[in-house]
Design brief:
With 416 residues, this protein is α+β, with helices and mostly antiparallel strands. It has helices at residues 98-103, 140-149, 195-206, 232-242, 254-270, 278-286, 295-309, 322-334, 351-366, 385-405, 407-415, and strands at 9-11, 14-16, 26-36, 44-54, 109-113, 116-119, 123-127, 130-134, 185-189, 213-217, 228-230, 250-252. The chain has a six-stranded antiparallel beta sheet with strand order 7-8-9-5-10-11. A two-stranded antiparallel sheet has the order 1-2.
Length: 416
């Protein structure tokens, strides 16, 4: 078993980080973590779970040290759980209280983004009050400790994932010497309500370039609100897929920030509308909890798309099938989309034929079949699983954005 980064060793001045690393076995740890609760405005609830994790003794050099008040908590027994608004659980058995962050000079909340390669500007505003930037020297030790205590996927390429230099598949399993080079990108936020990060994550999910938040901390949470949240399943599934994906990381520039800001503005303006597609937006985020390669993701996106555009077909009407409804309505909507769906990867087949073949693939999955894109003439124009899923994801996200802009139109179209 390979070592994981970031465990600190205790010193008189608090907790200093070293470069020594020692290997250890597997141990059943009691983890306290927060998970999202669909449809709940509070965003997180404290949960206790037992997970089999790797408990290593790997450590690395990080500028500065953690305050003495937090020393000794990273790999000891879990602390007694205080009230939700006064405590922060961060990964594994690590506990960091809001005062720990304030003593480090961290006065605003921050969320760690797990899938960024680089940003093209020193900072980018993703939405009012949300600033994407590199982590500060005060934030880096906290992030490292959290990463170290995360449950492991067991894959060697996971080691030092955010600290290793690019390219990731170069085989170098050692961190960059300079902490400034680590891919520690955070979204700073000023709100005392950590659920605003949940609302931002919805905008990130709807954007063409998706960013995933691994965890968020708030040094000054509002009463009754937790001071931390941890997207355990997103981090795990991302690391699982990143071990085989050719390029799992994204680059963020001003155009990507503009798309995120636009999606966030639409969400905020439409959130109180009675036709707000709350369930579909939540379900789309829940699909991130499934493995990237799972065919259930394809079925899930189709289910969301159908729930937005279709009504139960009339049995006596041969022109009212679900396939025909989706195909016809997407063709009508494509002329209204700010970013029309692109069918060029499918050899100029056109929307009608493409969606009929997409439904062929959907039916195959739903009935337990295995797709062979190279040999099945019905599926060959779809290229492969990834290309088909990308079209379906894009269509689903684009219809949701249209429902935020013109909710009555989508509601009326559903009944046609």
């Amino acid at each position: 078993m390979l070592p994981r980064p970031g465990l600190a060793k205790k010193s008189a001045g608090g907790r200093q980080y070293s470069t020594q690393a020692k290997q250890s076995g597997t141990k059943l740890l009691s983890l306290h973590f927060s998970i999202s609760s669909s449809g709940q405005s509070g965003f997180t609830q404290p949960v206790t779970a037992a997970l089999r994790c790797r408990q290593s003794r790997a450590t690395m050099s990080v500028a500065g040290s953690l305050p003495a008040s937090s020393a000794g908590r990273s790999r000891g027994h879990p602390r007694a759980t205080p009230s939700a608004h006064s405590r922060a659980w961060i990964g594994g058995t690590t506990t960091i209280l809001p005062n720990d962050l304030l003593q480090r000079g961290i006065t605003n909340g921050f969320a760690f983004v797990i899938n960024i390669k680089r940003i093209q500007e020193p900072s980018l505003e993703l939405a009012p009050g949300f600033l994407l930037r590199k982590a500060t020297p005060a934030e880096r030790p906290i992030i490292t400790e959290i990463i170290e205590s995360m449950p492991s996927t067991g894959h060697p390429l996971e080691e030092f994932f955010w600290q290793r230099p690019l390219p990731l598949n170069a085989g170098l399993l050692a961190p960059s010497a300079q902490a400034e080079d680590w891919r520690y990108f955070v979204i700073e936020f000023q709100s005392r309500r950590i659920d605003t990060i949940f609302e931002l994550q919805q905008a990130l999910d709807l954007s063409p370039t998706e960013l995933d938040i691994g965890f968020a901390l708030s040094p000054n949470p509002a009463p009754t609100y937790p001071s931390a949240s941890y997207s355990f399943s997103r981090v795990y599934q991302f690391l699982q897929s990143a071990t085989w994906a050719s390029d799992p990381l994204v680059e963020v520039g001003q155009s990507v920030a503009d798309e995120i800001r636009g999606a966030h503005a639409l969400l905020q303006s439409a959130r109180s509308h009675p036709l707000f597609p709350r369930r579909q937006i939540s379900q789309m985020g829940e699909l991130k909890d499934l493995p990237e390669s799972s065919p259930l993701r394809f079925l899930g996106f189709f289910s969301i798309l159908e729930s937005l555009l279709t009504h139960p077909p009339i049995p006596t009407d041969p022109y009212d099938s679900i396939t025909r409804q989706v195909t016809t309505k997407l063709k009508l909507l494509n002329a209204r989309f700010d970013r029309p769906l692109d069918y060029t990867p499918f050899g100029g087949m056109g929307s009608d034929k493409t969606w009929k073949k997409m439904y062929k693939y959907r039916s195959l999955i739903a009935h337990g079949g295995t797709a062979n894109f190279s040999k099945d003439p019905e599926l060959k124009p779809l290229k492969d699983e990834g290309t088909a899923l990308e079209l379906l994801k894009t269509a689903t996200k684009t219809v949701i954005l249209e429902a935020l802009k013109e909710p009555q139109l989508i509601a009326d179209l559903q009944q046609c």
